[in-house]
Design brief:
Blueprint (H helix, E strand, L loop, with lengths): L13 H11 L1 H21 L4 E9 L21 H8 L2 H11 L5 H5 L2 E4 L6 E8 L2 H54 L7 H27 L5 E5 L12 H26 L8 H6 L3 E4 L17 H16 L8 H4 L3 E7 L5 H14 L5 E5 L12 H5 L7 H5 L5 H4 L1 E2 L6 E4 L14 H13 L2 E6 L7 H6 L4 E7 L5 H13 L4 E7 L25 H6 L17 E6 L22 E6 L16
Parallel strand pairs: 5-12, 6-10, 6-11, 7-9, 7-10, 11-12
Antiparallel strand pairs: 1-3, 1-4, 2-3, 8-9, 13-14
Length: 611
């Protein structure tokens, strides 16, 4: 299996990124949307209310050839509605409308409140008047429509009167000429050569007079109608401006766009890992396993073997075994024995503790002897995922005590009662442990554990706090980076991968966990009582330990067989049982407990545990 294969659980397409970004920053998008709606509501309340009222006017043609349509007119009839719309907003009509409205405003101001529309393929004009009062809007629309019709009618009547006067003048001139022709004809003889010419002129004049008389008769009988109001202005019940619904929708849309933009900016500036798919793309680290957000890691126990988290760590165990190359030749079972895997957190916190404990439990479920070595001191009390609480073992003695030479490795190795085939070496209680992880004692300890166990899982300190993870990784066969979502930064993962790769240890990839939270008081399991040590400089620690109490045994727990030995401050004596259970705060002789781990007994799968 290729350890550097990309994690394909999540797609890296931009659409999914955008949806994930909106889901992660939903609160920011929601806040800006609410702010946009609130701003739109405030803007709407500050705007002046404007009422609109409209009047529909049917424009009728007047007279013969009157109001002839121009070449660029929008209608094919005798009326140019573009000219008529301009006529509505003329100063003459505005002056007449102001008189009808009894308004003292100048005509130009009134014209600014008028809007004229021409519906397509009609001879209608829709005259709309806007005002801050509904009554004024109604009166203004009706006044402009009425003033327009009156102005058009007066103009038509004046034009008809002028045409009648012109026709009368022409008829009078023709009659005078006809009279002169008749007088000349009366003085001529019947055979006079000028008579035919005069008779022709008389006939022409008579014909013209008859034509003009017909036109005059038509004008005199024409009814002048400039048009009519088909739908009068009504009293508006609600303001047309501001449009509250439109403003609120616009504010929500603007807030949504600002929210998405702010989320994108925050996503760009935030260097924390938000999802497992970011690792291969941004930091070039493969993802071995990712715990879904719905699976909440517990800081007081490992995942159940058949639960969602347990199945994920079982698959992680298989991938780790497949990623570690076995030496050529020999028995594969023996070749894979004594493998050391280092789990280092890229950031501060307890993520490496959770990953190491669950991975060690997954190895132990195969029936092979597994040892979990804890070399990670807690960064703070809040971030502590205590191994003694998770696996039911004592906190001391531990690795630091072994490296300091105060305890033997056998006495510091404890069997996990709830997990067969799993032994634990806790961090220990020696305060002066600085530099011990770079000592030869650590190399000897790991070499001894390789002989005794099939798999050794080392919980290393975070690469963000010290260089101890490098020292441990140089002694291991493979390394894993533990990543905590919404806490670990991309730069920390890059630095962790660089540190582990520099020592030549194969970096298998990263295990991604959701954000860890401290366990509730009701969820914590009872811890095994801490036993005092025989170290001379541990007097202060012994004095602070509470008296030993009996812990009720659970059905699924394996009892820890302990024997109590009395020792002098100088040299530990031979083991001797002690009947006393309580530990007084201060006493002359100190006691310590040793957990015996059989080193020569066969394991459950028939293989010798000591290799």
């Amino acid at each position: 299996m290729d350890a550097n294969r990309p994690h394909s659980a999540e797609s890296d397409s931009p659409g999914v990124d955008l949806l994930g970004m909106a889901r992660r920053h939903w609160w920011l998008v929601l806040i800006l949307m609410v702010a946009g709606v609130a701003g739109a509501a405030q803007f709407t309340s500050m705007q002046t209310k404007v009422y609109e009222s409209a009047t529909s006017v049917l424009v009728s043609p007047i007279g013969n050839g009157q109001d002839a349509n121009s070449t660029s007119g929008r209608t094919k009839g005798d009326i140019n509605l573009d000219n008529e719309a301009q006529l509505v907003t003329s100063t003459t009509v505005a002056t007449d409308a102001a008189a009808l409205m009894r308004s003292t405003l100048p005509p130009d101001v009134l014209v600014g409140n008028v809007r004229v529309e021409v519906p397509p393929n009609t001879t209608f004009l829709v005259i709309t008047y806007s005002a801050g009062d509904p009554g004024v809007a109604q009166a203004g629309s009706h006044a402009f429509a009425e003033a327009y019709l009156r102005n058009r009618e007066e103009s038509a009547k004046a034009e008809v009167a002028a045409r009648i006067a012109i026709l009368n003048d022409k008829i009078s001139q023709l009659n005078a000429g006809l009279t002169q022709i008749n007088n000349k004809l009366a003085t001529l003889r019947p055979n006079d050569p000028n008579r035919p010419n005069l008779e022709s002129q008389r006939s022409t004049a008579t014909s013209q007079i008859n034509t003009l008389a017909g036109q005059l008769n038509q004008l005199l009988t024409t009814t002048v109608s400039a048009g009519k109001i088909t739908r009068d202005a009504d009293l508006p019940s609600s303001p047309a401006k501001p449009n509250r619904l439109l403003n609120l929708a616009s504010g929500a849309m603007i807030g949504l766009l600002l929210g998405v933009g702010a989320a994108m900016l925050r996503e760009r500036l935030d260097q924390r890992v938000r999802r497992a798919g970011d690792l291969p793309r941004r930091v070039d680290v493969a993802v071995l396993a990712a715990i879904p957000g719905r699976v909440k890691p517990r800081l007081d126990d490992v995942f159940a073997p058949f639960g969602a988290g347990g199945r994920i760590f079982n698959r992680l165990r298989n991938e780790v075994l497949a990623s570690i190359p076995a030496p050529a030749g020999g028995d594969a079972r023996v070749a894979l024995a004594g493998q050391v895997v280092v789990v280092a957190g890229a950031s501060r916190g307890a993520v490496s503790t959770v990953v190491a404990a669950n991975l060690a439990a997954a190895f132990a479920r195969t029936g092979a002897e597994t040892v979990l070595v804890c070399a990670h001191l807690p960064d703070s009390l809040v971030d502590t995922a205590s191994i003694n609480r998770m696996l039911g073992v004592r906190a001391v003695p531990g690795l630091s005590d072994v490296l300091a030479g105060r305890f033997s490795l056998s006495s510091a190795t404890q069997r996990a009662p709830r997990h067969p085939n799993l032994s634990v070496v806790t961090t220990g209680g020696t305060a002066s442990a600085g530099g011990l992880l770079q000592s030869q004692a650590l190399r000897d300890t790991l070499a001894t554990l390789r002989e005794r166990a099939a798999y050794v899982v080392v919980e290393a300190p975070s690469t963000a706090t010290s260089a101890d993870a490098q020292s441990l990784a140089s002694l291991a066969d493979a390394a894993i980076v533990a990543v905590e979502l919404r806490r670990t930064r991309n730069t920390e993962i890059v630095d962790a991968a660089d540190q582990l790769r520099r020592v030549g240890t194969p970096l298998l990839g990263a295990v991604v966990l959701p954000r860890l939270s401290a366990p509730r008081a009701g969820d914590e399991r009872e811890q095994a009582p801490e036993e005092p040590t025989v170290a001379d400089d541990m007097t202060t620690v012994l004095e602070k330990l509470p008296p030993k109490e009996k812990v009720p045994a659970k059905k699924d727990e394996e009892p820890v067989v302990t024997k109590r030995h009395r020792a002098t401050p100088a040299t530990p004596s031979s083991p001797a049982p002690s009947p006393t259970v309580p530990v007084p705060p201060k006493r002359q002789n100190r006691t310590f407990s040793i957990t015996r781990i059989p080193t020569e007994t066969p394991s459950e799968n028939g293989a010798d545990k000591r290799r």
